[in-house]
């Protein structure tokens, strides 16, 4: 039992802290050092001694005001909650459309289209192994396919994210669809979600198509073209999610993302664009791991750094340039194949971290993603999870509800310092483009991935059902596989072959020749904008594979840059 | 006699998520094995060629996004090249329904997410002993 205190009211916070520390040391049985995933030591208690009240205005402030630590809008989720944007992609365009309309009917408020891996890799359906078609995304190779995918979706009012790596054919197909329907391009909103080619090289996902210099040029052209023709479209989403899924710690993921954004902004400036013209359309996309407070602090720190660097480094004067808009996706790496229903709990914790972190748009993973592409049942639970968090749990009543927590404010400061230190390493390596080219970023992420795996293997990091609390499972209780219908896929392939034979070969040839010429010309020498030619080619019936093949030929194939 | 397994770690098909293959390759290398590592997106014929040229004991394929569906094609190509004795293991996201299909096609073992690295290296050591015993009968 504790001794009665001589004087129950301590003379000062410092004195009380000393008293608590002594009692804590005496009572705790075994006090292990605790570090978060970013390697920051975490203390058992945070107090007013951990934050400097004099720095409230510069470090914390108010929502909607720089440095935006508490959120980029004055109203945040109390005004407009986040966009409920679920990634979907499976099978044929018709099957995709049915799933999309089902999810919208259950509460999703925006589109996020995931194409088949063959599309990610730059191929049409007739260029790859048939077994793989549509198993991880929709097989959309033409403007006609996109029209089917988006049947019943009002393009003037629905924000559509296209998971569309360079050269952005999916957006080009969507623009062709919009033109056919008479929708004004200036009303079209959404995001080129996979435009961050550096993250593709870093995380080595399925996106390699163009060599680094070509990828760099296509993106700069894409940003310029969209800035001119699509005022509500975000041509760039800088993706920390790829890097964190590949193994980067939350601090590394934030740092590499901000360093990439600096690189892209530098490239736009070099191409003659004004920061206040393009920065308001830069968006970000992050992983939300289950390391709850670390994720909240990561997002708060990221907003603060971006608000400062857009002003100080790029001289941006439009507040929209300072706002760090981001989409969050709950982390698939944290999900387990074992006892898959447990993933619903994991996704819930991750999603709350993202919400408290102040996100603008959220994808919640389906519980069965660790097994296969989500089933319809799994996708519905993921949507319902967001509905519950948004409308039942009272999470949106107060803006930045964790702001002012001694721990969260101190951790936000520490994450900021950690992120800035990593960004300085990238800067010293010559910026993100050079740091990726040299493999420095990939090596660092690989080391972090391995360190995390070793913590799981050693049991230092508990993963329920994997290294603790294992149970004998009934495999039959697992969800059924979501696989495309083979008959539908075969019919889709036949239709595609017949349609290709019917097209105007002359129009296709001319458009591809124009595209090749735009890629050959030096942009600064006044050549046509490459993305403008992609849009034109898509409109006259060129396929995804044809457009990609043309650019691969002209700009070179992007071989992986790996380090083990 | 201590044997030093020679392992090819690779990915075929369309997906490039290589966190798993890189972690496993680094672990096997640190465990003293000779590791031939390739980036993702290898053609089946390239994998067969590498397996012949490098004379590997074990081929480890990582599949996280359904690329395991073309592993039977690789198995057939290996048999055709006279490499039926090489042990092929698959790691990653392989649904139960597909695991049996892979085993029927001649895959030696499937490692699911959550498999400790030590289990993978221990299995490869045993498999190598079996492969070599079959290749060089006493």
Sequence of strands across the biggest β-sheet of chain B: 2-1-3-4-5
Number of strands of chain A: 9
Assign an overall shape of chain A: globular
Largest interface: A-B, 45 and 34 residues
Quick one: biggest sheet of chain A? 9 strands, parallel
The CATH superfamily of chain A appears as Methylmalonyl-CoA mutase
Structural class of chain B: alpha/beta
Instruction: List how many beta strands of chain B DSSP finds.
Output: 5
Question: What is the domain total for the residues of chain B?
Answer: 1
In spatial order, strands of the major sheet of chain A run 5-4-3-2-1-9-8-7-6
Residues in helices of chain B, as a percent range: 40-55%
CATH architecture level-2 label of chain A: Alpha-Beta Barrel
H-E string of chain B: EHEHEHEHEH
The assigned CATH architecture of chain B is 3-Layer(aba) Sandwich
Number of helices of chain A: 23
Cα radius of gyration of chain A in angstroms: 25 Å
Number of helices of chain B: 5
How many structural domains of chain A?
Answer: 1
Topology diagram in text:
The complex is a heterodimer of chains A (564) and B (138).
Chain A: H1 13-27, H2 56-60, H3 76-79, E1 83-88, H4 93-105, E2 110-113, H5 117-120, H6 143-149, E3 160-162, H7 169-181, E4 190-192, H8 197-203, H9 212-229, E5 233-234, E6 236-239, H10 240-245, H11 250-270, H12 275-278, E7 282-288, H13 292-312, H14 319-322, E8 326-330, H15 342-356, E9 361-363, H16 376-391, H17 406-428, H18 432-437, H19 440-458, H20 486-502, H21 505-520, H22 530-539, H23 544-555
Parallel strand pairs in A: 1-2, 1-9, 2-3, 3-4, 4-5, 6-7, 7-8, 8-9
Helix pairs in contact in A: 4-6, 6-7, 7-22, 11-13, 11-17, 13-15, 13-17, 15-16, 21-22, 21-23
Chain B: E1 6-10, H1 19-30, E2 34-37, H2 44-54, E3 58-63, H3 71-80, E4 87-92, H4 96-104, E5 109-111, H5 117-135
Parallel strand pairs in B: 1-2, 1-3, 3-4, 4-5
Helix pairs in contact in B: 2-3
């Amino acid at each position: 039992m504790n001794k009665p205190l001589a004087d129950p009211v301590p003379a000062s916070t410092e004195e009380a802290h000393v008293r608590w520390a002594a009692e804590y040391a005496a009572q705790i049985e075994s006090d292990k050092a605790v570090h978060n995933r970013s390697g920051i030591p975490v203390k058992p208690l945070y107090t007013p001694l951990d934050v400097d009240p004099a720095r409230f205005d510069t470090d914390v402030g108010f929502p909607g005001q720089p440095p935006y630590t508490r959120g980029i809008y004055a109203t945040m989720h109390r005004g407009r909650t986040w966009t409920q944007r679920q990634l979907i992609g499976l099978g044929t365009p018709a099957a995709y459309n049915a799933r999309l309309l089902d999810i919208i009917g259950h509460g999703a408020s925006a589109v996020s289209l995931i194409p088949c891996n063959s599309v990610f890799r730059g191929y049409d359906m007739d260029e790859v192994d048939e077994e793989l078609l549509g198993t991880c995304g929709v097989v959309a190779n033409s403007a006609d396919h996109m029209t089917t995918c988006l049947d019943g979706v009002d393009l003037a009012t629905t924000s559509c994210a296209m998971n569309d790596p360079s050269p952005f054919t999916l957006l080009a197909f969507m623009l062709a669809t919009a033109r056919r329907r008479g929708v004004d391009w200036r009303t079209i909103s959404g995001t080129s979600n996979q435009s961050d080619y550096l993250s593709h090289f870093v995380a080595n996902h399925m996106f390699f198509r163009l060599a680094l210099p070509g990828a760099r040029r296509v993106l700069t052209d894409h940003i310029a073209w969209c800035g001119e023709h699509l005022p509500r479209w975000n041509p760039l989403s800088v993706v920390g999610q790829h890097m964190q899924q590949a193994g980067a710690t939350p601090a590394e993921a934030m740092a590499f993302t901000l360093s990439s954004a600096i690189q892209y902004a530098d490239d736009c400036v070099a191409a003659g664009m004004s920061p206040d013209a393009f920065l308001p359309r830069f968006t970000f996309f992050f992983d939300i791991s289950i390391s709850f407070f670390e994720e909240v602090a990561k997002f708060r720190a990221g907003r603060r750094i971006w608000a400062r660097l857009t002003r100080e480094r790029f001289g941006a004067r439009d507040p929209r340039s300072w706002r760090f808009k981001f989409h969050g996706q709950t982390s698939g790496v944290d999900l387990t194949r074992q006892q898959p229903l447990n993933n619903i709990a994991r996704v819930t914790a991750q999603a709350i971290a993202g919400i408290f972190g102040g996100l603008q748009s959220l994808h919640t993973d389906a519980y069965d993603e660790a097994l296969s592409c989500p089933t319809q049942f799994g996708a519905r639970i993921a949507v319902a999870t967001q509905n519950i968090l948004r409308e039942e749990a009272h999470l949106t009543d107060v803006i930045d509800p964790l702001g002012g927590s001694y721990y969260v404010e101190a951790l936000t400061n520490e994450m900021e310092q950690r992120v800035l230190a990593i960004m300085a390493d990238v800067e010293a390596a010559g910026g993100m483009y050079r740091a990726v080219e040299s493999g420095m970023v990939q090596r660092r992420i690989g080391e972090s991935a391995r360190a995390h795996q070793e913590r799981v293997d050693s049991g230092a990091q508990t993963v329920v059902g994997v290294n603790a609390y294992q149970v004998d499972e009934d495999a039959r209780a697992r969800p059924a596989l979501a696989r495309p219908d083979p008959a539908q896929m075969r019919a889709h392939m036949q239709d595609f072959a017949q349609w290709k034979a019917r097209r105007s070969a002359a129009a296709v040839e001319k458009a591809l020749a124009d595209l090749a010429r735009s890629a050959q010309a030096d942009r600064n020498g006044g050549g046509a904008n490459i993305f403008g030619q992609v849009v034109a080619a898509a409109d006259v019936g060129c396929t995804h594979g044809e457009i990609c093949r043309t650019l691969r030929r002209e700009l070179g194939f992007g071989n992986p840059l790996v380090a083990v | 006699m201590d044997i030093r397994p020679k392992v090819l770690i690779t990915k075929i098909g369309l997906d490039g998520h290589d966190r798993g293959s890189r972690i496993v390759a680094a672990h096997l290398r640190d465990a003293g094995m000779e590791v031939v590592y390739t980036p993702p997106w290898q053609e089946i014929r390239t994998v067969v060629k590498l397996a012949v040229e490098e004379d590997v004991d074990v081929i480890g394929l990582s599949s996280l996004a359904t690329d395991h569906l073309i592993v039977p094609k690789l198995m057939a190509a290996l048999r055709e090249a006279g490499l039926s004795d090489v042990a092929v293991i698959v790691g990653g996201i392989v649904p139960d329904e597909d695991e049996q299909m892979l085993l029927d096609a001649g895959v030696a073992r499937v490692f699911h997410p959550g498999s400790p690295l030590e289990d993978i290296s221990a299995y490869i050591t045993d498999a190598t002993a079996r492969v070599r015993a079959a290749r060089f009968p006493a």
